[in-house]
Structure formats: C-alpha cells, structure tokens
Amino acid sequence: MNQQIRLRLRVARPGFTLDAELALPGRGVSALFGHSGSGKTTLLRAIAGLDRHPGAYLDVNGEIWQDADRGIFVPTHRRALGYVFQEASLFEHLDVNGNLDFASKRAQTSDAARRQAIDLLGIGDFLTRRSAELSGGDRQRVAIARALLTSPRLLLLDEPLAALDRKRREDVLPYLERIQRELAIPMLYVSHSMAEVARLADHIVLLDGGRVLASGPAADTLARLDLSGALGADTGALVDGVVDDVDAAYGLLRLRVAGGALHIAHAALATGTRLRLRILARDVSLALSPQADSSIQNALKATMVEAREE
User: Fold this and answer.
1) Alpha-carbon gap, residue 21 to 79, rounded angstroms
2) Phi, psi for residue 81 in degrees, rounded to 5
C-alpha cells in the first residue's frame, strides 16, 4: 500500500489565511520551507493536534487523526508523534538519563529502542550530565533522542537548528541524516534555511503567505523556473553523485554525476560514497564554446531546454 500523509487545512485569522491541501510521502523527510509568517509552524501545530481547526482532515499512513466531517479528532497525547521545538525544552533539574527516562516510561519503550536512540544521536558519553551543562547542539540531540523514545509514527521538527550557530548546526545535521537513513519514521521538517532543506529533504513544500506554491520531490521542485521568484538567492539545483576520486592535497573530491564529473571542495570521503550537491543558479555561467582562459574548474556540456524572464 502506498503510504501517504494527507492533509486538508484552512486557518483564517485577522490579516492571515492558511489554505493547504497536501499529499506527502509516508516515508523520508518532507520539508516545509518558506519565509517567516508563511504558515509553517501553524501547519505543524495542526498536525500535532496542538491547535484544532474546523474542517480539517489528517490521515497519517492510513490512520485518521482528524476528520471534521465525521467528528474525529485525536488529541495530541494519543497521536503517535514526536515533536522537537526550536528550543530543546529539557527538564533542567534532570540529567540526560532522566530526560530520556521521562519519555521511555510514558511510551514503555524497550531497552533496545533506548540504546538505539542513544547510539543514533551519539549522546552516550554525557548521559549523567545535567541539561544545563550541555551545549546547544548537545541539548538538541538529547531532545531528538527523547522524541524518538515516544515510539513515534511521525516525527515533527520545528526549526530544530534555528537557535544554533553554524558550527553547532553542522554538528547536528549528520545525526538527522543518520535517522533518515536508518529509521522508517517519516519526518516533517520546518525550516527557512534552504541549506538544511537541500541537505535533508526528499520532498519540499514551498509556502508563501499561507499559500502552497509547490509540493513535490526536492530536486524537481528546486529546478522549477517558475519558482525562482519565491526562492530568490536560494534558486538552484540538486545533483546526486558518487565519489570516485579524492585529491587530499587540494582538499577536493571528484563526484561522478549524470553528464560527467564535478570537482568539489570537501573533506576526504571513501570512494563510492553518495553525496547530494546543491548548485546555486548564481554560481553557474553559460558559454557557447569551451573556455580555456577561465578560473571555472567544472565544465559540463549541456543543452538549454527552457528560458524564463524575471
């Protein structure tokens, strides 16, 4: 059976209306992307059941959590979901073990599931430390582990890295990628950072002023020319490739992609490693003939298939 998260929602407030009807994949990461005030968090809170809106409908992989027409509304505590907020919201009087215990006891999580969450988030070295003693990135990793211990069938992440500096964000992102690879839990990831979205998302929902401008596979959505106005400086393309050579002296990888190969600045990785590359439109030049006197290192033959004026 094709797994899907199906949602219909309309929220009308003074000066703002959110109108969304979505069918999202029931696996992988679906990112809700848009500027502040576009409706991302409103949508996520409705999915969590924190806010109840008339006329709404929500089906999570065949389980109806809300259907206004039939009078169905499953309260938040009965929805099998984990929710991670911008701030970790840990219990300050408890150590890491205590925070994890709070979630695992409520969900009656097995010891094996607990060990898996600790391993996935790499928090085993500071289980006895108080929450207040942790860095922002470590606190968020504990918060994500705690959400996993509720045995969720859906994981909601509301800008979980927004309060972190760039270094801490880079520390946490690999753990989110690991969850994506190793667990079958669908994730809805709210962000206004296209760098995070491009790195994590399988599916993108682009919101603007309460309207759904686009919803589709990440690579296809970001390549749409009609969305360049909404994406602005984030306009670009996602390219999947495989590492087939490493130049450690210059800190370069050669990435085999459809249509040729690209050299990228990156830490050394084993050959055969799959990578997703984001190429921003502003970093692309077009030439009608091969250029011998340019500093550009990557050149691919291509055919222009569409042009659009802004």
Assistant:
1) 20
2) -140, 155
Please report the pLDDT score of residue 307 as a whole number: 86
Nearest to 48 by CA among 205, 204, 188: 188
Confidence of residue 109 (pLDDT cuts 50, 70, 90): confident
Assess contact for 207 and 34: CB atoms under 8 A.
yes
How many alpha carbons lie under 13 Å from residue 146 in its C-beta half-sphere? 26
Record the tokens describing residue 105, joined without a space.
């006891």
Tell me the average pLDDT across 260-287. Answer: 91
pLDDT confidence of residue 1: 53
Three-state SS across 117-176? HHHHHCCHHHCCCEHHHCCHHHHHHHHHHHHHCCCCCEEEEECCCCCCCHHHHHHHHHHH
pLDDT (average), residues 217-224: 90
For residue 108, give Cα distances in angstroms to 100, 102, 135, 210: 12, 10, 28, 38
